[in-house]
Amino acid sequence: MEILIVEDEAEIAQLIQLYLEREGFACRSCRDGMTALKLWQEQPPDLIILDLMLPELDGLEVCARIRQKPGTKDPFILMLTAKGEELDRIIGLSTGADDYMVKPFSPKEMVARVRALLRRNLRQVGATVSYRTPHFLLDPEQRLAQRFDENQSPENLDLTTLEFDLLATFMSFPGRVWNRSQLIDKLWGNNFFGDERVVDTHVARLRKKIEPDPANPSFVKTVIGVGYKFEDG
Ligand code: CA
C-alpha cells in the first residue's frame, strides 16, 4: 500500500510519514499541489493525504483534478484542514475527498482513518445492487447517486465513497433502525478502532448533501438513544 503525503508544513509531514512508515506503509511526500499532481500521474498511490492550504495549487484544486480524470486506479483522499470553519466550507463544496481530519489531530487517529479507508478498498466486493426509493436512486456499478424532486427530475448527488456506502446501507433496508456499531460493521468491517461517534459525523455530512433541510431531516432520521433509520415515502 502506497501513500502520498502532500503537506507544506515540514513538521506535520514528517510526523505523518513517521507514523505511517512505522505501520508498514510506503510513503512519498511533497509540499505543493503541482508536484502532487506530477507524482500522482507518475505512479498513482493507494491513498493521498492532502492538506487543504498549499502553495500555488490548493488541496481542493488537486482533489478536483484527480477526480476529473478517472484512471484505472482512483486513490482514496484524506483531506487535512486547519480549522473547523474550513471544514464546514469544504463539506459544502463536495470536494471528492473520502474523509477529512481537522488539525491538530492525533497521529494514531490518522493511522486509524487511513487503515479504515484502505480496508474499504479490499472489501469492495459485491454491492452491485441498485436501490430506488421515491426520492433516490443509487447505482453502485456506475457509482451514480441521484435525488428526484416532485416532478421526478433527477439531480446528481456528489457523494464521497463513504457517504455513498452509508446511503446504500440505509436504502438496503428502509425503516430499519441501525445503531452505530451496526453501521460501523457495515462500512468498516469489524476491525474498526476509533470513536463510534465518527458515524454521527458522516451522517451529518450525508444529510447536508441529501436533505432539503439538514437540521430537520426527512430521510435519514435520528432514533433517540439508538441510532438512525432511513425512510422515504
Ligand atoms: Ca498547509
Describe the secondary-structure layout:
Elements lengths: L1 E5 L3 H13 L3 E5 L2 H10 L4 E5 L7 H10 L7 E6 L2 H10 L5 E4 L4 H17 L7 E3 L2 E4 L4 E5 L5 E3 L4 H11 L5 E3 H9 L9 H13 L9 E4 L3 E4 L3
Parallel strand pairs: 1-2, 1-3, 3-4, 4-5
Antiparallel strand pairs: 6-7, 7-8, 8-9, 10-12, 11-12
Helix pairs in contact: 1-5, 2-3, 6-8
Calcium ion (CA) binds next to loops.
Task: Describe the fold and architecture.
It is built from 8 helices and 12 strands. It is globular. The N and C termini lie far apart (43 Å). It has helices spanning 10-22, 33-42, 59-68, 84-93, 107-123, 161-171, 180-188, 198-210, and strands at residues 2-6, 26-30, 47-51, 76-81, 99-102, 131-133, 136-139, 144-148, 154-156, 177-179, 220-223, 227-230. It is 40% helix and 22% strand. With 233 residues, the chain is of the alpha/beta class. Bound molecules: calcium ion. Calcium ion binds at residues 8-9, 51, 53-54.
- Mass-distribution shape: globular
The neighbouring-strand order within the major sheet is 2-1-3-4-5
Ligands in the model, by name, code or SMILES, are: calcium ion
**Domain module count:** 2
Strand content bin: 15-25%
